Each structure stands twice: as C-alpha cells, then as structure tokens.
Amino acid sequence: MKLKGIVGAVILLGMGILFGAILVSGFGLVRPGYADIKLGADNAPVTLDADASSFSQAFIETAKKVTPAIVQITVVSEIENNPHDDFFFFPFKDMPKEQKGSGSGIIISKDGYIVTNNHVVEHANKVTVGLFDKRTFDAKVIGTDPLTDLAVIKIDADNLPVAYLGDSDQLKVGQWVMAIGNPLSLASTVTAGIVSAMGRGQLGLIKDSYGVEDFIQTDAAINPGNSGGALVDLSGSVVGVNSAIATQTGTYIGYGFAIPINLAKSVAKDLIANGKVNRGYIGINIGNVDDAIAKSIGMDKPHGVIIQGILKNGAASESDLRAGDVILSVDGKEVDAPNQLQSYVASQTAGTTIKLKIYRDGETIERKVTLKPREEDAKTEPVSSKSENEKENNTKMSTATFDNLGLTVKNLTDRDKSDFNVDHGVLITEVKHYSAAEDQRLFAGLVIVQADRKEIDNVEDFTKAVDSKKGSALLLKVIDNKGNNRFVGLEIPE
Length: 494
Known about the structure:
Helix content: 10-25%
Mean pLDDT: 84
Low-confidence stretches: 83-90, 377-395
Distance between the termini: 124 Å
C-alpha cells in the first residue's frame, strides 16, 4: 500500500508537470514579458552607401528649406460653372461650383508678394493666405494675366521666407523635381518625380489664341489645390508654377503641368510694376513645320515655325517678314514649335527689338522686329492681289477630284468670294477619311488661295500645280471663312 501510494504520487506529479508545460507553451495563458518580445529581423536588408544617403538627403533638405515659402490660398469667389468640365486637360478649378476654394502660392519677396495661378484668384471677392507658421493674412490681388494663367497677390507682412527662383531654361527631361503645395486642402504636401517633357503645348488650357502654353510636364503627383504651388529641383530652386493636370477623373492619374519659372518671373515683375502685363507681339500667325511642309519649301528636315499670316498694323507688317517665312531662332534661341516662340516673346515687353533667323527661298537671313502691344481687333491681311482683267474666269473645268490625295475642289462662285473675302482660289468640297489631305488637317469649307507660292484662280490652275509636283511635295495656302489662313504641305504621289 505504501509503495502504491508513492507510485501514485509520482504519476500525479509527472502529469502535473506535463499539463503545466502544455498550458504554458501551447495555450498562451502565460504572456511573455515586454522585454522578452522581439519583432522583425536583426538588421535592415540593404545598407545604403554614401551616394544613396546623399541622394535621399537632398529630398529631405529641399522639402525642409522650400516648404516655408509655399502658402495656402483660400478664396471666396463668384459661383461659376467650370468651363473645362468637358475637356480631358483642364486647369485645377479649385472652386468651380462652390463659393469657397483653395490653391497654393509661392512667396517671391520678403514684403509679401506671392505668385499663383490666375484661375485660383479670378473672380475673387476675398483672398486669404495661410503661412507655414500658421499665421493668416488677407491678401490683395495685384494683377492677373489670363494668357499665361499667372497672378500676383500681396499680403501686409515683413521678413517672410522667400523662394529662390531658378532658371527653367536649364531644366532637362529626366531631372528629379518635387511638387510642393496644398492639394485637396492637405497643407504642405511634398511629392517627387521627374521632368517627363519640356515645351508641352496645344493642350487647350488657355482658350485665347494669344494664350501661352509652354508647360513643363512632370509625373510628380499633383492634385487640385496644388495650383500655384512650386515645382522645384533638388537644389531647392523653383523651376515652375504648378498649374494643371491630365486627367479623366479630376484628380492625379499620372501627369501634371507647370508654367516655366522664367516666364513667371517676367510676368510677375510686370504685374507688380504696372498691375498688368505690357507684353510685346510680333503680329503673326504661326504653325508647325511638318515633314511635308519642309519638303515643299526645300528644307532638308522639319525645323522652326512657319509664318501663316501677317497681322495688319502689327510689328511684322512694318518689317521685312513675309507669310511663308520659317523662323528658325529668336535672339539666338532655336525654336521648333509655335509655343516655344510664343513663350519667349511673351517674356518680352512692347518696344523690345528681337532678332529672328529666317529661312526663305532656300536661304537663311536675319531680320529685326520691334515688338508692339497687342491690338484686340488685329486681323490678317485680306487675300487679294490680282485685278479683274488679269483673271481668267472662263474655264472648262469647274470641279476636280484627286483620288490619290482624297481631295475634291471646285471653282469659287461670287457668293464664295464674298463669304471668304477673297478674289481667287478654289474651294475644298470634300476630303476623304484617312486620306493624305485629312492627315494634313484639310477639310471641306477651306479655300486654297496659293499653290507652290503662286496664286491660283481656278481648278485648272490647281490641277497644273499638283501635276508639277508629282513625287514631291506641294505647299498650299488655305483660308477659312473667318479669315484665318495657314500653310499646308501636301505630298503628291508619283
């Protein structure tokens, strides 16, 4: 009995130890001490070298130094419908359907001048500025420039942190940049990306034909509320004023656009000094030089911008510039797109003399033009030169179809001549889809007034011009019923 008792006691003790161990280890009823808990691996998987650490530090320092110079702008404005709702590209209309909206701005002087977007403060009844240090001020709109979507406002303050305005002409595609602003009312937000493209234009953001679209494109995340904020490089230099996004949703989906700071500087100076921009104009209509135009005028490759028309009483009308000239450079700066020329000229004031390098009739020449202020009623010169007795109005051929071009033309009636304000040419009556003519943006309702730099009176003249350029390219001058004219290059198959 005694032995049985001892054995039983041992068994009970062993079972107690076993169950105790199971309870402790398997059921978690006893928690480990705070100091005994170990989370994650012992070391980071990657050790940054000096270059990587320095690169990261550049972002940190730039954000730290520049952010205090970026302000949040709150606007109480008139209620208006957003005119850009139906467009893929549109400016950040931060207040399209509300009385109150917000945007961003860049402090450009210690005494309170701030540059922002025109569309942030247009129609404003009240403008309030919030600083990085949480102070707020009422602001006054000093001046606006809808043609560049820029504006300057001012607050009554001193010793403010001022942004350093860099040189956007030195900016390169692929360069790292940061966007700093107040998107979606999230104050002092910093995002990063690269410059995706330079000189981006023809986005339809500015509806005025004199509007300047020469944007820096970036993939740094930009959203409504970033309007007027800074695009900066890694030295902390402001290189652009954030202005618009490419979107189908109203928020960021990949690309944003900023106004080059060099243009913003010249506009801001004018607005501060005069309350408006005293901008100079050449007084010309211009267009791209594509491959067909280049071939038709004897250029070895597309380059420059072509003068489509000369405006009456404009600066060009008083100089030796002609429709059909190709502008290769302005003041030594090469231009390959209309917005590049527009952007440079927009930074010059009326009275400034600029030097143009021109391609004309196979030769390169230089001409000087003194810029004049814009005349609201300026129009291109009417197309008329031949006297009635020089024209041959009687022709057997009244219409002609050019299947290889996808184009049909007819002689002008007296009604057509009156509608288009011309006394010669042929009317385009049909352009086939996917044809060479459609590719060059020809369409029914245009009048062709010149072919190969020679005036044409009828279908026979035009047919002869086409036949003479088979295997080459033909330069056409066309005009619409609003008086707008342009040159078109059309390659003629053998």
